[in-house]
Amino acid sequence: MIRVLLIIIYIAFISLGLPDAIMGSAWPMIHNDLNVPISYAGIATMIVSGGTIISSFFSERVIRKFGTGKVTTFSVLLTATGLLGIYISPSFIWICLMGIPLGIGAGAVDSALNNFVALHYKARHMNWLHCFWGIGATSGPFIMSVYLLKDNGWRLGYATIGIIQAILVVCLFISLPIWRKFEAPNNNEEEKSSEVKVSILLKLPGAKAALISFLCYCAVELTTGLWASSFLVMNNGLSTERAAKWVSFYYLGITVGRFLSGFMAMKFNNKQMIRIGQVICILGAAILTLSLSESMQLSGLIAIGLGCAPIYPAMLHETPNRFGKELSQGIMGIQMATAYIGSTFIPPLFGAISQLIGFKFLPIFLLIFMGIMLLSSEHVNKKVKVNNEI
Protein backbone atom coordinates (compact mmCIF):
# COMPACT_ATOMS: atom_id res chain seq x y z
CA MET A 1 0.00 0.00 0.00
CA ILE A 2 2.80 2.43 0.84
CA ARG A 3 4.23 1.95 -2.68
CA VAL A 4 0.83 2.71 -4.24
CA LEU A 5 0.64 5.86 -2.15
CA LEU A 6 4.16 6.83 -3.19
CA ILE A 7 3.18 6.57 -6.87
CA ILE A 8 0.19 8.84 -6.20
CA ILE A 9 2.45 11.35 -4.44
CA TYR A 10 4.87 11.31 -7.38
CA ILE A 11 1.99 12.09 -9.74
CA ALA A 12 0.80 14.80 -7.34
CA PHE A 13 4.23 16.47 -7.44
CA ILE A 14 4.16 16.60 -11.25
CA SER A 15 0.69 18.11 -11.03
CA LEU A 16 1.89 20.54 -8.35
CA GLY A 17 4.50 21.93 -10.75
CA LEU A 18 2.23 22.23 -13.78
CA PRO A 19 0.56 25.60 -12.93
CA ASP A 20 3.66 27.29 -11.49
CA ALA A 21 5.17 28.74 -14.67
CA ILE A 22 2.21 29.05 -17.06
CA MET A 23 1.19 32.60 -16.15
CA GLY A 24 4.48 33.98 -17.48
CA SER A 25 4.16 31.98 -20.70
CA ALA A 26 0.56 33.02 -21.35
CA TRP A 27 0.62 36.62 -20.10
CA PRO A 28 1.68 38.31 -23.39
CA MET A 29 -1.56 36.97 -24.92
CA ILE A 30 -3.71 37.39 -21.78
CA HIS A 31 -2.96 41.09 -21.29
CA ASN A 32 -3.80 41.80 -24.93
CA ASP A 33 -7.06 39.83 -24.86
CA LEU A 34 -8.20 41.43 -21.60
CA ASN A 35 -6.83 44.88 -22.52
CA VAL A 36 -4.77 45.45 -19.37
CA PRO A 37 -1.17 46.70 -18.96
CA ILE A 38 1.53 44.05 -19.14
CA SER A 39 2.72 45.10 -15.65
CA TYR A 40 -0.53 43.70 -14.16
CA ALA A 41 1.04 40.24 -14.19
CA GLY A 42 2.80 41.24 -10.97
CA ILE A 43 -0.55 41.87 -9.28
CA ALA A 44 -1.90 38.45 -10.25
CA THR A 45 1.21 36.59 -9.12
CA MET A 46 1.35 38.50 -5.83
CA ILE A 47 -2.23 37.42 -5.06
CA VAL A 48 -1.34 33.79 -5.71
CA SER A 49 1.78 34.11 -3.58
CA GLY A 50 -0.16 35.79 -0.78
CA GLY A 51 -2.66 32.92 -0.65
CA THR A 52 0.18 30.42 -0.65
CA ILE A 53 1.94 32.12 2.27
CA ILE A 54 -1.24 32.34 4.36
CA SER A 55 -2.29 28.72 3.74
CA SER A 56 1.23 27.50 4.58
CA PHE A 57 1.16 29.32 7.92
CA PHE A 58 -2.15 27.72 8.90
CA SER A 59 -1.56 24.32 7.30
CA GLU A 60 -0.49 22.55 10.51
CA ARG A 61 -3.81 23.04 12.30
CA VAL A 62 -5.86 22.09 9.22
CA ILE A 63 -3.77 18.99 8.43
CA ARG A 64 -3.85 17.84 12.05
CA LYS A 65 -7.62 18.13 12.08
CA PHE A 66 -8.50 16.61 8.69
CA GLY A 67 -5.43 14.53 7.77
CA THR A 68 -2.92 14.79 4.92
CA GLY A 69 -5.06 12.85 2.43
CA LYS A 70 -8.15 15.04 2.76
CA VAL A 71 -6.18 18.29 2.82
CA THR A 72 -4.21 17.27 -0.28
CA THR A 73 -7.37 16.27 -2.14
CA PHE A 74 -9.22 19.47 -1.26
CA SER A 75 -6.14 21.61 -2.04
CA VAL A 76 -5.77 20.12 -5.53
CA LEU A 77 -9.53 20.67 -5.99
CA LEU A 78 -8.93 24.35 -5.19
CA THR A 79 -6.12 24.60 -7.75
CA ALA A 80 -8.28 22.87 -10.37
CA THR A 81 -11.10 25.32 -9.61
CA GLY A 82 -8.73 28.27 -9.97
CA LEU A 83 -7.32 27.03 -13.28
CA LEU A 84 -10.73 26.25 -14.78
CA GLY A 85 -11.99 29.57 -13.43
CA ILE A 86 -9.28 31.41 -15.35
CA TYR A 87 -10.38 29.50 -18.46
CA ILE A 88 -13.77 31.25 -18.33
CA SER A 89 -12.51 34.55 -16.92
CA PRO A 90 -14.21 37.59 -18.52
CA SER A 91 -11.83 40.14 -16.98
CA PHE A 92 -8.57 40.70 -15.13
CA ILE A 93 -10.46 41.06 -11.84
CA TRP A 94 -11.77 37.54 -12.32
CA ILE A 95 -8.22 36.25 -12.83
CA CYS A 96 -7.23 37.92 -9.55
CA LEU A 97 -10.17 36.25 -7.77
CA MET A 98 -9.18 32.86 -9.18
CA GLY A 99 -5.66 33.46 -7.89
CA ILE A 100 -7.01 33.09 -4.35
CA PRO A 101 -7.94 29.36 -4.57
CA LEU A 102 -4.81 28.77 -6.67
CA GLY A 103 -2.57 30.18 -3.94
CA ILE A 104 -4.39 28.62 -0.99
CA GLY A 105 -4.42 25.21 -2.63
CA ALA A 106 -0.74 25.34 -3.56
CA GLY A 107 0.46 26.29 -0.08
CA ALA A 108 -1.54 23.66 1.78
CA VAL A 109 -0.71 20.74 -0.52
CA ASP A 110 2.99 21.68 -0.63
CA SER A 111 3.27 21.71 3.16
CA ALA A 112 1.18 18.55 3.58
CA LEU A 113 3.03 16.39 1.06
CA ASN A 114 6.52 17.53 2.03
CA ASN A 115 5.96 16.72 5.69
CA PHE A 116 4.29 13.39 4.88
CA VAL A 117 7.23 12.33 2.71
CA ALA A 118 9.75 13.53 5.32
CA LEU A 119 8.04 11.35 7.95
CA HIS A 120 7.36 8.19 5.94
CA TYR A 121 9.94 7.94 3.14
CA LYS A 122 13.70 8.01 2.71
CA ALA A 123 15.66 11.09 1.63
CA ARG A 124 16.13 9.86 -1.95
CA HIS A 125 12.38 10.04 -2.54
CA MET A 126 12.28 13.69 -1.40
CA ASN A 127 14.91 14.52 -4.03
CA TRP A 128 13.17 12.55 -6.77
CA LEU A 129 9.78 14.02 -5.88
CA HIS A 130 11.13 17.53 -6.32
CA CYS A 131 12.71 16.38 -9.57
CA PHE A 132 9.20 15.36 -10.65
CA TRP A 133 7.97 18.81 -9.61
CA GLY A 134 10.57 20.18 -12.03
CA ILE A 135 9.16 17.98 -14.76
CA GLY A 136 5.72 19.43 -14.07
CA ALA A 137 7.04 23.01 -13.99
CA THR A 138 8.78 22.39 -17.32
CA SER A 139 5.74 20.70 -18.89
CA GLY A 140 3.31 23.48 -17.95
CA PRO A 141 4.79 26.13 -20.30
CA PHE A 142 5.22 23.48 -23.00
CA ILE A 143 1.52 22.55 -22.81
CA MET A 144 0.61 26.23 -22.87
CA SER A 145 2.87 26.87 -25.90
CA VAL A 146 0.96 24.27 -27.91
CA TYR A 147 -2.26 26.26 -27.50
CA LEU A 148 -0.88 29.80 -27.79
CA LEU A 149 -0.82 29.50 -31.58
CA LYS A 150 -4.64 29.39 -31.56
CA ASP A 151 -7.26 32.06 -30.84
CA ASN A 152 -7.91 32.27 -27.09
CA GLY A 153 -5.19 29.64 -26.80
CA TRP A 154 -4.28 30.66 -23.26
CA ARG A 155 -7.79 29.69 -22.16
CA LEU A 156 -7.42 26.23 -23.67
CA GLY A 157 -4.03 25.87 -22.01
CA TYR A 158 -5.50 26.69 -18.59
CA ALA A 159 -8.44 24.36 -19.26
CA THR A 160 -6.15 21.46 -20.17
CA ILE A 161 -4.02 21.84 -17.05
CA GLY A 162 -7.16 22.35 -14.96
CA ILE A 163 -8.62 19.09 -16.28
CA ILE A 164 -5.37 17.28 -15.44
CA GLN A 165 -5.69 18.62 -11.89
CA ALA A 166 -9.33 17.52 -11.74
CA ILE A 167 -8.37 13.97 -12.77
CA LEU A 168 -5.80 13.98 -9.94
CA VAL A 169 -8.54 15.03 -7.52
CA VAL A 170 -10.48 11.88 -8.45
CA CYS A 171 -7.37 9.71 -7.95
CA LEU A 172 -6.68 11.32 -4.57
CA PHE A 173 -10.28 10.85 -3.46
CA ILE A 174 -10.14 7.15 -4.33
CA SER A 175 -6.87 6.82 -2.39
CA LEU A 176 -8.20 8.38 0.85
CA PRO A 177 -8.54 4.99 2.65
CA ILE A 178 -4.81 4.36 2.01
CA TRP A 179 -3.82 7.71 3.50
CA ARG A 180 -5.75 6.95 6.69
CA LYS A 181 -3.67 3.84 7.35
CA PHE A 182 -0.54 5.98 7.73
CA GLU A 183 -2.03 8.73 9.85
CA ALA A 184 -2.55 8.31 13.58
CA PRO A 185 -6.04 9.28 14.74
CA ASN A 186 -6.34 12.47 16.76
CA ASN A 187 -8.42 13.09 19.84
CA ASN A 188 -9.33 16.40 21.40
CA GLU A 189 -6.66 16.20 24.07
CA GLU A 190 -3.92 15.62 21.48
CA GLU A 191 -5.19 18.48 19.33
CA LYS A 192 -5.28 20.84 22.32
CA SER A 193 -1.75 19.80 23.24
CA SER A 194 -0.54 20.32 19.69
CA GLU A 195 -1.91 23.88 19.66
CA VAL A 196 0.19 24.71 22.72
CA LYS A 197 3.26 23.29 20.99
CA VAL A 198 2.64 25.30 17.83
CA SER A 199 2.67 28.51 19.89
CA ILE A 200 6.28 27.88 20.86
CA LEU A 201 7.60 26.65 17.50
CA LEU A 202 9.68 29.74 16.91
CA LYS A 203 11.35 29.27 20.31
CA LEU A 204 12.70 25.84 19.37
CA PRO A 205 16.51 25.69 19.19
CA GLY A 206 17.55 26.53 15.64
CA ALA A 207 14.02 27.29 14.39
CA LYS A 208 14.63 30.92 13.44
CA ALA A 209 17.91 30.06 11.73
CA ALA A 210 16.14 27.30 9.78
CA LEU A 211 13.56 29.82 8.54
CA ILE A 212 16.35 32.14 7.41
CA SER A 213 17.89 29.23 5.49
CA PHE A 214 14.61 28.58 3.65
CA LEU A 215 14.12 32.26 2.84
CA CYS A 216 17.68 32.58 1.52
CA TYR A 217 17.46 29.41 -0.55
CA CYS A 218 14.30 30.52 -2.36
CA ALA A 219 15.79 34.01 -2.76
CA VAL A 220 18.81 32.47 -4.55
CA GLU A 221 16.82 30.07 -6.75
CA LEU A 222 14.14 32.52 -7.87
CA THR A 223 16.39 35.58 -8.20
CA THR A 224 18.76 33.60 -10.42
CA GLY A 225 15.90 32.29 -12.54
CA LEU A 226 14.27 35.70 -12.93
CA TRP A 227 17.29 37.94 -13.53
CA ALA A 228 20.09 35.74 -14.95
CA SER A 229 18.91 36.36 -18.50
CA SER A 230 18.92 40.15 -17.99
CA PHE A 231 22.36 39.89 -16.38
CA LEU A 232 23.75 38.02 -19.38
CA VAL A 233 22.20 40.46 -21.86
CA MET A 234 22.94 43.74 -20.05
CA ASN A 235 26.32 42.83 -18.58
CA ASN A 236 27.81 40.34 -21.06
CA GLY A 237 26.17 41.43 -24.29
CA LEU A 238 24.48 38.11 -25.11
CA SER A 239 21.46 38.06 -27.39
CA THR A 240 18.07 37.64 -25.74
CA GLU A 241 17.55 34.25 -27.38
CA ARG A 242 20.97 32.95 -26.29
CA ALA A 243 20.51 34.22 -22.72
CA ALA A 244 17.10 32.55 -22.47
CA LYS A 245 18.63 29.27 -23.63
CA TRP A 246 21.33 29.54 -20.97
CA VAL A 247 18.75 30.11 -18.24
CA SER A 248 16.96 26.96 -19.41
CA PHE A 249 20.22 25.10 -18.71
CA TYR A 250 20.09 26.51 -15.18
CA TYR A 251 16.66 24.94 -14.61
CA LEU A 252 17.81 21.77 -16.30
CA GLY A 253 20.68 21.70 -13.78
CA ILE A 254 18.17 21.80 -10.91
CA THR A 255 16.02 19.04 -12.39
CA VAL A 256 18.88 16.72 -13.33
CA GLY A 257 20.65 17.55 -10.09
CA ARG A 258 17.67 16.40 -8.04
CA PHE A 259 17.52 13.16 -9.96
CA LEU A 260 21.21 12.54 -9.21
CA SER A 261 20.76 13.71 -5.60
CA GLY A 262 18.33 10.86 -5.05
CA PHE A 263 21.21 8.44 -5.59
CA MET A 264 23.68 10.56 -3.60
CA ALA A 265 21.25 10.55 -0.66
CA MET A 266 21.87 6.81 -0.33
CA LYS A 267 25.46 7.60 0.68
CA PHE A 268 25.31 11.06 2.24
CA ASN A 269 23.01 12.30 5.01
CA ASN A 270 20.85 15.42 4.76
CA LYS A 271 23.37 17.71 6.45
CA GLN A 272 26.10 16.64 4.06
CA MET A 273 23.82 17.05 1.05
CA ILE A 274 22.94 20.59 2.16
CA ARG A 275 26.61 21.51 2.60
CA ILE A 276 27.60 20.04 -0.76
CA GLY A 277 24.85 21.97 -2.52
CA GLN A 278 25.71 25.25 -0.78
CA VAL A 279 29.41 24.98 -1.66
CA ILE A 280 28.60 24.26 -5.33
CA CYS A 281 26.22 27.24 -5.39
CA ILE A 282 28.89 29.55 -3.99
CA LEU A 283 31.44 28.30 -6.54
CA GLY A 284 28.92 28.89 -9.35
CA ALA A 285 28.19 32.45 -8.21
CA ALA A 286 31.93 33.10 -7.84
CA ILE A 287 32.46 32.02 -11.46
CA LEU A 288 29.70 34.44 -12.57
CA THR A 289 31.38 37.22 -10.59
CA LEU A 290 34.64 36.76 -12.53
CA SER A 291 32.84 37.42 -15.86
CA LEU A 292 35.34 35.40 -17.87
CA SER A 293 34.50 33.56 -21.11
CA GLU A 294 30.97 32.71 -22.21
CA SER A 295 31.56 29.03 -21.49
CA MET A 296 32.64 29.90 -17.94
CA GLN A 297 29.51 32.00 -17.47
CA LEU A 298 27.36 29.09 -18.62
CA SER A 299 29.30 26.78 -16.30
CA GLY A 300 28.59 29.15 -13.42
CA LEU A 301 24.84 29.13 -14.10
CA ILE A 302 24.72 25.35 -14.40
CA ALA A 303 26.76 25.03 -11.18
CA ILE A 304 24.24 27.20 -9.30
CA GLY A 305 21.44 24.99 -10.62
CA LEU A 306 23.23 21.79 -9.63
CA GLY A 307 24.02 23.28 -6.23
CA CYS A 308 20.42 24.31 -5.63
CA ALA A 309 19.22 20.79 -6.46
CA PRO A 310 19.85 18.97 -3.14
CA ILE A 311 19.46 21.89 -0.71
CA TYR A 312 15.69 22.37 -0.59
CA PRO A 313 14.69 18.66 -0.53
CA ALA A 314 17.35 17.88 2.10
CA MET A 315 16.26 20.76 4.35
CA LEU A 316 12.66 19.59 4.10
CA HIS A 317 13.53 15.96 4.82
CA GLU A 318 15.70 16.97 7.78
CA THR A 319 12.83 18.82 9.49
CA PRO A 320 11.58 15.87 11.62
CA ASN A 321 15.17 15.10 12.65
CA ARG A 322 15.79 18.69 13.69
CA PHE A 323 12.58 19.43 15.55
CA GLY A 324 10.91 16.07 16.24
CA LYS A 325 8.15 14.20 14.43
CA GLU A 326 5.42 15.62 16.69
CA LEU A 327 6.26 19.21 15.77
CA SER A 328 7.41 18.65 12.20
CA GLN A 329 4.10 19.56 10.52
CA GLY A 330 3.85 22.83 12.43
CA ILE A 331 7.40 23.93 11.67
CA MET A 332 7.05 22.64 8.09
CA GLY A 333 4.14 25.00 7.45
CA ILE A 334 6.09 27.98 8.77
CA GLN A 335 9.15 26.95 6.74
CA MET A 336 7.08 26.76 3.56
CA ALA A 337 5.52 30.15 4.24
CA THR A 338 8.95 31.69 4.84
CA ALA A 339 10.25 30.07 1.65
CA TYR A 340 7.40 31.64 -0.33
CA ILE A 341 8.13 35.02 1.26
CA GLY A 342 11.70 34.71 -0.03
CA SER A 343 10.59 33.74 -3.53
CA THR A 344 7.94 36.48 -3.64
CA PHE A 345 9.80 39.53 -2.35
CA ILE A 346 13.56 39.06 -2.83
CA PRO A 347 13.61 38.81 -6.67
CA PRO A 348 11.63 42.09 -7.01
CA LEU A 349 13.99 43.61 -4.42
CA PHE A 350 16.98 42.91 -6.65
CA GLY A 351 15.02 44.30 -9.60
CA ALA A 352 14.63 47.58 -7.72
CA ILE A 353 18.29 47.58 -6.63
CA SER A 354 19.45 46.86 -10.19
CA GLN A 355 17.86 50.10 -11.33
CA LEU A 356 20.33 51.92 -9.07
CA ILE A 357 23.52 49.84 -9.28
CA GLY A 358 23.06 47.76 -12.44
CA PHE A 359 22.74 44.05 -13.21
CA LYS A 360 26.48 43.41 -12.90
CA PHE A 361 26.05 43.03 -9.13
CA LEU A 362 23.71 40.04 -9.46
CA PRO A 363 26.44 37.48 -8.56
CA ILE A 364 27.39 39.55 -5.49
CA PHE A 365 23.73 39.75 -4.45
CA LEU A 366 23.45 35.96 -4.79
CA LEU A 367 26.69 35.37 -2.87
CA ILE A 368 25.37 37.43 0.06
CA PHE A 369 22.26 35.27 0.36
CA MET A 370 24.27 32.08 -0.19
CA GLY A 371 26.62 33.08 2.61
CA ILE A 372 23.75 33.84 4.99
CA MET A 373 22.12 30.52 4.06
CA LEU A 374 25.33 28.60 4.79
CA LEU A 375 25.88 30.32 8.15
CA SER A 376 22.27 29.93 9.28
CA SER A 377 22.19 26.27 8.22
CA GLU A 378 25.33 25.51 10.20
CA HIS A 379 23.85 27.41 13.15
CA VAL A 380 20.81 25.10 13.04
CA ASN A 381 23.07 22.05 13.09
CA LYS A 382 24.98 23.42 16.07
CA LYS A 383 21.84 24.35 18.04
CA VAL A 384 20.10 21.05 17.37
CA LYS A 385 23.24 19.07 18.30
CA VAL A 386 23.64 20.96 21.61
CA ASN A 387 19.93 20.53 22.40
CA ASN A 388 20.11 16.77 21.73
CA GLU A 389 23.17 16.42 23.93
CA ILE A 390 21.38 18.19 26.75
TrEMBL record:
Its main location: membrane. PROSITE patterns: MFS (PS50850). Signal peptide: none annotated. Residues 5-381 form the Major facilitator superfamily (MFS) profile domain. One of its GO terms (cellular component) is plasma membrane. One of its GO terms (molecular function) is transmembrane transporter activity. It is found in: Cell membrane. InterPro entries: MFS (IPR011701), MFS_dom (IPR020846), MFS_trans_sf (IPR036259), MFS_Transporter (IPR051788). Keywords: Membrane, Transmembrane, Transmembrane helix, Transport. It holds the Pfam family MFS_1. It is a multi-pass membrane protein. The chain crosses the membrane at residues 40-59, 71-88, 128-149, 155-179, 209-228, 248-266, 273-292, 298-315, 327-346, 352-375. Belongs to the major facilitator superfamily. This is MFS transporter.
